[in-house]
Amino acid sequence: MTATLNPPEAERSEKPASRRGDRIFAGLARGAGLTILLALAAVFIFLFVEGWNGLNAEEATYRPATDFLGYIGPLILSTILAAIIALIVAVPFAIGIALFISHYAPRRLATPVAYVIDLLAAVPSVVFGLWGGRYLADLLQPVHVWLHDRLGFLPFFGPDPASPNGRSLFTAGIVLAIMILPIITAISREVFAQTPRLHEEAALALGATRWEMIRYAVFPYARSGMVSGVMLGLGRALGETMAVAMVLAVTPVATLNVIGTASPATIASNIALNYKEATPSRQSLLIATGLVLFAVTFAINFFARWIVGRNERKQAKA
Amino acid sequence: MAKSIDVSDLNIYYGDFLAVEGVSMTIKARSVTAFIGPSGCGKSTMLRSLNRMHEVIPGARVEGKVMVDGQSLYGPDVDPVAVRRSIGMVFQRPNPFPTMSIYDNVLAGSRLNSRKLSKADADDIVERSLTHANLWNEVKDRLGKPGQGLSGGQQQRLCIARAIAVEPEVLLMDEPCSALDPISTSAIEDLIHELKSDYTIVIVTHNMQQAARVSDETGFFNLKAAGQPGHLVEFNATKKMFTNPDEPATEAYISGRFG
């Protein structure tokens, strides 16, 4: 996630900074950069040390499964399914809103819309959880039935009947989508607004409509920033705890069906739901699942970066 | 293909601010018309009003008439997008699309509105436009490379190729050489001479020698005072402007007494 940030200015130049102000600032910048790496390393070490015993404990610890993979498999599946639903719903909305704010809306309207979207980020996740579980789930229940009737042949919407109360992974994914919308919107909006005027005018002067101008000038310029925004959103969707724990009806049985009566918890919500009542060995297991979540998030981020980087390298070589 | 432009009593506003006042002129087809004048006198705004590019700034509007071969540019049913398709523009700094290859840059305009092009047609447009822009021989072996890898002068010629690929009626150039070295400048000026046989060209320049070298007619813009709108002081054949102008202000500017 930090790949878009430039390395601290100080590390780029070889010459020693001569003025005191320069030296102080260079030190602060370097310190800040190192601190975040240290913090990340500390989290990793904690997870590793505390979770190690959870990786091969007695069979009973993994109940109802019998080993670690059997325990975490359904959780990973749910985590990823929920995050995918959230991204599918949130990304088009977020890009659309960001474009509206940066390129379509008159300034009078753009500023308040941007402000309201930012406010959405300030709503605590527990509130989203309450709203999602008590209100949105009821509201979306007919949608579950509709999806099951029309698309029930897909493993995601069948073959089991649709959830009678809407407290499914699908609803959880929608709640997550609303929660990650502000961050993707905010980042996309900022990069869209920074598109060089020169490139926009190049497209317009050729007779591009506004949408064509956006395709020619804005998207190519903003692509890497958009990916950053989506990755931050994805990170939040994978790790979100409270909202999912409050919305989702939980079963330990793995299923692809996202609109069924119950799904396995996501990794993060499973930790929140079980940590307090857990025995020490069970706690180790939960921390180990946290380690896996950490690794999954990392892997997805690197993979996405690699894809973007590969496209750009291909372009540079061509 | 080339068309003449008639401007009468044109006022250009940005919101309430009157930027250019009372311009009337006739720009002849198949000729080069230069706009000169001190910074901030509205010559770029004037140029942009000829393909409605000034409307990119919110609140921009005009009063008066601009007729291209008898057709009003600002009629109620005229789409600015269509206007810009037939009146091309080259900018102060070269601006090829950074993520596109040389080949795709030339075709950018032709591909708008998702018009379908056969491979043969596309190749043909690319070769013809680049040849026309005196760039073909330099880039024909690396059409797939990004346009930004070219030198500044080559990039500017690429932008000219991109503009003429859609066969516009008029070509507007906003200080096309101001970011280029003298050799590239000379290449662009030669190109302007050649393009004149097919296109109506209007060029804004800060360089009076350049105006004298490339243009057939010249318009001199000036401000009455700071904060006042720009206006057209004199519009005449270039030869006359640079030897025996009608207005003393023109002579003062051209001989370097101000500006």
From TrEMBL, chain A:
Major localization listed first in the record, in broad terms: membrane
Subcellular location as annotated: Cell membrane
Entry keywords, A to Z: Cell membrane, Membrane, Phosphate transport, Transmembrane, Transmembrane helix, Transport
Membrane-related topology note: Multi-pass membrane protein
GO CC annotations on file: plasma membrane
One GO term of the biological process aspect: phosphate ion transport
Keyword Chaperone attributed: no
Sections of the chain in a coiled coil: none
Keyword Nucleus among record annotations: no
Domain ABC transmembrane type-1: from-to ranges: 76-304
Entry's transmembrane regions: 24-48, 68-101, 113-132, 169-187, 241-265, 285-308
Pfam families: BPD_transp_1
SUPFAM superfamilies on file: MetI-like
Listed GO MF terms: phosphate transmembrane transporter activity
Family named by the database record: Belongs to the binding-protein-dependent transport system permease family. CysTW subfamily.
Function: Part of the binding-protein-dependent transport system for phosphate; probably responsible for the translocation of the substrate across the membrane.
PANTHER family found in the cross-reference section: PHOSPHATE TRANSPORT SYSTEM PERMEASE PROTEIN PST (PTHR30425), PHOSPHATE TRANSPORT SYSTEM PERMEASE PROTEIN PSTC (PTHR30425:SF1)
Record-given protein name: Phosphate transport system permease protein
Naturally occurring in which organism (per UniProt): Nocardioides agariphilus
Taxonomic placement: Bacteria, Bacillati, Actinomycetota, Actinomycetes, Propionibacteriales
From TrEMBL, chain B:
CC terms in the record's Gene Ontology section: membrane
Gene Ontology annotations of biological process type: phosphate ion transmembrane transport
Annotated CDD domains: ABC_PstB_phosphate_transporter
Pfam families referenced in this protein's UniProt entry, alphabetically: ABC_tran (PF00005)
One MF term in the entry's GO annotations: ATP binding
UniProt keyword list: ATP-binding, Nucleotide-binding, Translocase, Transport
Protein known as: Phosphate ABC transporter ATP-binding protein
Organism: Nocardioides agariphilus
